[in-house]
C-alpha cells in the first residue's frame, strides 16, 4: 500500500496523542483512505518519553532541527511557542515538506508570512487543531460553509477560562479558587496567563476571522480583556438580569467593518452557548445562506487535539491541499478593523455607591448626558467595600461614551470604588 511519511516534532500532550492515534487507529485510517500513514520520526528533548510510546530508537531524535534532515512528506509541529516553532515551520516549508501545526499563537502572529511561504513553495500548511481542539471548526468553515458569506462568529474557545467561569457560576467560588482547581486538574497551565487574560482565545478568533473575512487578522487586531476581575457578585447579579457570564470571542462584520473581540460577556441564560460548560468549547457561525450553525466538543487535551491533527495529516494523504482563502493573497479592498471605542453594545454597569438619597439621580444624569439609555436598574442591600451595589443594564450604546460617562461617575463623591463594566450580547 502507498504510504505517507510523517515526522512529529514535539511529543508532549498533543504529540503523544498523535503518536497513540496513528499507531492505535492505523488500520482504521488506512482502510478508510487506502493509504498507510507511517511515522518517519518523533523528535522531543525527552527521548525516554518517546520510547515509552513504543517508537523504535532509530526513529527518535532529541532535537527538532536535526529531525528536519530525515526524509518525510509531512512535518507535524507540536512544540508550541512562536520562536523555535516558527523557525522549524519555516525550514520545513523551505525543504518542501507539508506542515501540520496546532500552534494558534504562531499562526495568529505569523500566519501571513508562513502561509505565503507555503503557497509559494506549493506545500500545505494545515492547522485544524489550532482552534477548538477536537472540533472540526476550520474544516466546517473551509468546506461545509464555503459558499456562504460569514456574518458572525461567537466562540467559547478557551476551555480553561470556561471551566473557571462555570465553577464560579455553579459553586459561587472566587476566581482564584476556581483557577487553583483548574490547575490541580491539569486544565490550566502552571502559567495560565494566556488563558485567563484572553490571549489564547484572541489567537483563535484571529485565525477564524482570517478564514472568514478575507483579511489577515492578527492578535494585535483583537480587542482583548480577560476574566480576572470577574467576581461571584457580578455572576449572581447577571443571573438576576437573566444572563450568564462567558469569555466570548466575537468576530462580526458591522457596517462593512470587522469587529474582533474577546472579553467577559453577559449572554442570555437560555441561549445554547450559556449551556456550554466546564472545559467544553463551542462555536456559533452564521452564514448568509445556511443561517446559524453550531459546533461543540472538547477544545483541548491529548486525544481531542490529536484527532484534529490527524485529520490534517489524512487531508494531505488524500491530496486535499487546501490553502487559506485565495482572496487573502490578493490586493484590493479589505474590511477595516473597527476601533474598540466605536463598538456599539449593551452594557452591565455595577456602581459601588453610598446608600443615600439622590445617588441614582446623579448617576442617571451623567448617563443621559452621554446619550446612554438605561434598560434596567437594581439596587441590592448588601455591603460591598462599605457601599451598596447599584446595577444597571443599558440599551445599545457607544463604548467610548460609556467609558467617558463612567470616568465622570467614578469621580462623584457618592461612588466608592471603580465601576465594574461588562458588555452584553443578546446573540
Ligand atoms: P507540551 O509542552 O506538552 O509539548 C511540547 C513538547 O515539545 C515538549 O515535550 C517539549 O519538550 C518539546 N520541545 C520543545 N522544544 C523542542 C525542540 N526544539 N525539539 C524537540 N522537542 C521540543 O505542549 P502541548 O502538546 O500542550 O502543545 C503543543 C502545541 O499544541 C502548542 O502549540 C499548543 O498551543 C497546541 N495546542 C495544545 C492543546 C492542548 O490541549 N494541550 C490544544 C490545542 C492546541 P520540553 O518539555 O523539554 O520543552
Ligand atoms: N489552553 C487552551 C484552553 C488549550 O484552555 O482552551 C487549547 O487550545
Task: Please give a structural write-up.
By secondary structure, the chain is an alpha/beta fold. The chain folds into three domains: 3-130, 3-Layer(aba) Sandwich (Rossmann fold); 137-299 and 323-337, Dihydrodipicolinate Reductase, domain 2, CATH 3.30.360; 341-424, Alpha-Beta Plaits, CATH 3.30.70. It has helices at 13-24, 26-33, 47-51, 64-67, 84-94, 104-121, 137-144, 159-171, 175-184, 193-196, 199-213, 232-240, 302-317, 359-369, 399-410, and strands at 3-9, 36-43, 60-61, 74-77, 98-101, 125-126, 150-156, 223-224, 243-254, 257-268, 280-287, 291-298, 336-337, 344-353, 374-379, 388-394, 397-398, 415-424. Strands 7, 8, 9, 10, 11, 12, 13, 14, 15, 16, 17 and 18 form a twelve-stranded mixed sheet that branches. Strand 5, helix 6 and strand 6 (125-126) form a beta-alpha-beta unit. The chain is elongated. The chain starts with a strand and ends with a strand. The mean pLDDT is 96. It binds NADPH dihydro-nicotinamide-adenine-dinucleotide phosphate and L-homoserine. NADPH dihydro-nicotinamide-adenine-dinucleotide phosphate is lined by residues 9-15, 43-46, 63-64, 78-80, 84, 102-104, 129, 133, 300-301, 305. It catalyses: L-homoserine + NADP(+) = L-aspartate 4-semialdehyde + NADPH + H(+). Pathway: Amino-acid biosynthesis; L-methionine biosynthesis via de novo pathway; L-homoserine from L-aspartate: step 3/3; Amino-acid biosynthesis; L-threonine biosynthesis; L-threonine from L-aspartate: step 3/5.
